[in-house]
## 1
Amino acid sequence: MTTTTTTATTTTTSTARRIRTEEDDDWTKEQLMGQHVKEQSLLLGGASPNTNMQKNHKQKNKRNKGTTKKTTTTTSTSTLHCWGYPGHLTNDEAEAVLQLNQVVHERDLDGDTEFGDTILAFGPDEELVYALCRCLRHVKFNVADCIPVIQQGQALRHKAALHQFYPNPDEALQCPAALYFAQFPQLYTGTVDKTGTPIFISQPGQINVDAIELITTVDNIVKLHWNLMVHDLGSRLSQLQAQHPDDFKRFECFCVMDCAGLTSAQLNKKTLAIIKAQSAIDAVCFPETCSYMVVINAPLLFAASWRIIKGWLDPQSASKVEVISSKAASHARLLELVDAPQLPSDYGGTAPDTATLFLQQQQQQQAQQQQQSSNGGSSSSSSYAKLTSKVIYLRNKATETVTIPANMSLELSVYTRSTTGANFTLFQDDRVIGEPISVVHDVTDDDEGTTRPTRVVLNSTTRFLTGPSPVTVQMESKQPMRFATTSTHNFLLVFGFMDQQNKNKNNHNKNN
């Protein structure tokens, strides 16, 4: 069990939790309302170590510690939304925090520690007072409404906790995570915005719905979501808190949603099912963890619709979302919120572009898999230096050719839900490799895509194909063209390229 997993699943102590200040005193209503000088002077979004403003701010904190003088920052309130945070509460809101804190205290004493663990969704590194405020902001500080929401989250969280929140993303998806992210690009950049908050970028306009349906299920994607929230985002937040214990308080992320290329066809029933399932978890288990969202490259219709929808929302929720259609305007706005060295170059900054970051993410995941395998654990996928894929909409016959570079080898696999199937034949340098391979999804009742897709490694008998040389895949449907339908004859060809060193490691691991 990893350290992150232990943190996420073992958050209780021998005594009941209470919200406490750095002096280990219980928070008072006055402090929650902003009369606690040190808390009032903190950077509420976290601290970025790269800005002079934050360095100066730390010095002011030291000079004013123990005084009654109120300090201020130059950060705009549009960036640091202060409503509903410790030090910025109204009388009624502060009362609600104290009341919910007492509920946590009493439930801890009664042995129901999962209730408090649900509030501290990212583990004990988040200060309880900030976690309480997160939950209460979600319901406008109505304690009577908040408790049932936490209990709903407790029920959802209990099942995931039994599996340590799925620490291995490949096992959660039952396919390589790198393959999934190639179909739906999304990642934490490893950088922060001007408030020190981690940056998350999602590119829904690049989602390949057909490919995702061929490699995994909605249930498995939900498992991955637990992994991303607890093990990925949670560990990033804990690291920032450890690096800046006096400044980093808000366990949140800054979201960039890039809608370039988004079409109505991508928002089908299965896509909406994924969004719905993930949103249901976030609403009750990770409420108010998005500090700010900028939707960029938004289609004009979407932007126009947002201007109407925004008027229906409460001001606090609406103020956290910004929709921009113009590329130039979006880059300019992002640079107001994120320092250039922290922002990917394809979004106007000077950091590595997202394509490079996605590749680095894939390499990091594979390195973790290799480490797990070398430590005696299971490794669910080979270590690919490059992973590409293509959806084949097969109605009769088709061919696909790929070139293996020098000093590289290829593992070629296919995913499908086709119940009629197809025969696949491999050619290397115009030479037939082995016999035709039948690929059929042997589940007859899978209209909703709830079962695990069928995966076949086409060159399993010949191990790895080596380069430099071209490899051609010839595909022929088992059903005559006049009976064929697109939905039952989709195949995803996956080309996993490895260098010779990793090929030898994989052969050794498989033989053992």
## 2
Amino acid sequence: QGVDSTTFTPPPLDGSLTIPEIYEAQVKNSPNHPFFVFAEYPRKVRTVYYPEGVQAIRNAARIVESHYSCCKDQVYQWMLTDTISYSCLIAGIMSLGCTVFPISTRNSPLAIAHLVSKMGVFQLLVSPEPAL
């Protein structure tokens, strides 16, 4: 997706960069390439480009770092239904060197308790949405 795009420069895919580092590199290499595209209102499309998307990742990392103790051996579990927030938060936590264990909101409470126990989840981040 982007091979033929005039706004996209492929990042190195040789394993030399982490996923958050790839996003950071794309701010420099592909600043005018869409990061997210979504319907904002009926008949209106909103495009988030790499600089804005990566800033959201940085903001998420800053919020997590300031509110939670984070170290490389901790596992964070996140449950959220908003795709953009979900993606930015996961990348932000990863950029802090932490392990992220995303979990589907479709799991039962018993399944979630089992996963939290088995994975050794240190911190659980849950949005205030009624479905959660």
